Write the structure tokens for this entry.
Amino acid sequence: MSTVYLDEQGSEVKKKGELLIIKKDDKTIAEIPLAQLDRMVIIGNVQISTQALALLFDKEIPVSFITTYGNYRGKLKPPTHKNVILRLKQYERYNDKTFRLNHSKEVIRGKLKNGKIFLQKHSRNNPEISINREIEEIEALLQNLGFASSIKELMGLEGAAAKAYFRGFGMLVKKEFTFERRTRRPPKDPVNALLSLGYTLLFNEMLSAVESLGFDPYLGFLHEVEYGRPSLAVDMVEEFRFLIEGLTLTLINKEILSRDDFIEQDNGGFYLHEKGREEFYRQYEKKITTEVQYKIIPSPHGGEGSNLNYRRIFHYQVESLARVIKGEEEKYIGYETK
């Protein structure tokens, strides 16, 4: 099973039996068997017929839409999951301030620890670059997480850690690229363009994972309720952001992408053009389907751990949260990279 990214501008998706036919200018450019598909992402100006959508709904395959600039538009998916019991427990936990704070601490702990490990690993591989101060700042903030008495205070610590982290991250960016600070809407340089696109794809993964189990994606525990924002999916993204930052460095430092793969728009934002996006999606899938040892206990397959790809790990982390919400496990344990 796989994810298909449709980015051929001006193309159309049609149905033929159990196949999805991709056409452009009356020519068939691809045929996709439904048996080989578990999600579809449509980028920009790609049309899809109602017959094709009906087939996807029948097979319970969600279709996500993002702009060519990497902004999430929305998703068409089968009817809401029937797990109303989980949602009732979720609402109950949301109103428990102690639970919210303790869970949020674990989410931020995972994010900061993974960020620190990420910088340490790259520091060892690049001894000529000194980012020890940034690593030490993140470690000090990690030690202070336990003393936070509110989510607002916790987010303040996370913000300070993010400044140190991205300062170190910027020093690791090589070749013809530079990175000074995180910018969004629009991303002000090519590095930010890669981060934004990657975070959008990661968010879409988490949104699918929380919806597939029956959670209300709009009610998170770390991020406050905001109209139209799937806060729970945003919560789940935090401990895995390092994957996108690692992918970004790989694409740049290994010269898989160059500055010629980016265009600057009138609003001052930088974006990948179509050829660059195609390569990005290939590399993203390669990254997200990489198998690593997953050691959260209880292991999903018994024993002390299993080799799983990140996409499966996302779902197991959501399942772990569901068990905590229902009182079957005492505490959510954030994912930790090695």
